Amino acid sequence: MSKPDSVVFVVDDDPSVREAIQSLIRSVGVHIESFASAQDFLRAKRPEVPACLVLDIRQPGLSGLQLQRKLADADIRIPIVFMTGHGDIPMTVKAMKAGAVEFLTKPFRDQDLLDAIQQGIETDRAARHERELTGDLRERYRALTRREREVMRLVVSGLLNKQIGAELGTSEITVKTQRGQVMQKMGAGSLAELVRMTERLGVPVPED
Is 43 exposed, middle or buried (0-12, 13-18, 19+ CB in 10 A)? Predict the structure, then answer.
């Protein structure tokens, strides 16, 4: 069976609610997996694709807010759409502050749920892409020698090769060679691109 492009997880202890949401999600061609409890969801093996979690906030065992906290503690980043038949302001504020995409009070319009799910999936897709780019950059950065990292930091701070040579106690020609190696290993086509890479990586840059 091929891996889906994206997936919606539904956690609700009410079978009729799960079935209704499953039918709705499948009608728009999106893969869905449903669970009767937060514990079942935590035990399940989840596909590594952009996802959104539709989560009932009040249910036996782990509540929706408790599951949200557990996922955050485990650094499992899935955008959550909360739903409840007993919504209140403090609960909504707590869920949204913890990063929920939406908080829907039952009964809600099908389109409101679909819109929230779409937002969640696109948010997760963008976050996964960002993590992938950063991970790739970290691999490239780890491939640099210690001296190349020093040269990189000084290059992005705006120093010329001659100034970098004076700073490191080496020749301008050597710095020029090392600078070229840094650009090549990092896959940077310009100084501006190298600067953006150091910002993404959080590499400390000397002040002017």
Answer: exposed
CA separation, residue 161 to residues 149, 189, 204 (Å) = 14, 18, 19
Nearest residue to 98 (alpha-carbon basis) of 83, 118, 78, 126: 78
80-104 confidence digits (pLDDT tens):
999 887 766 677 777 777 778 888 8
Q: Give dist(CA 59, CA 144) in Å, integer.
A: 51
Residue 134: Cβ-neighbour burial (10 angstroms; 0-12, 13-18, 19+): middle
What are the E-state strand segments in 85-156?
Answer: 102-105
One-letter amino acid of 87: G
pLDDT in tens, 10-29: 999 999 999 999 999 999 99
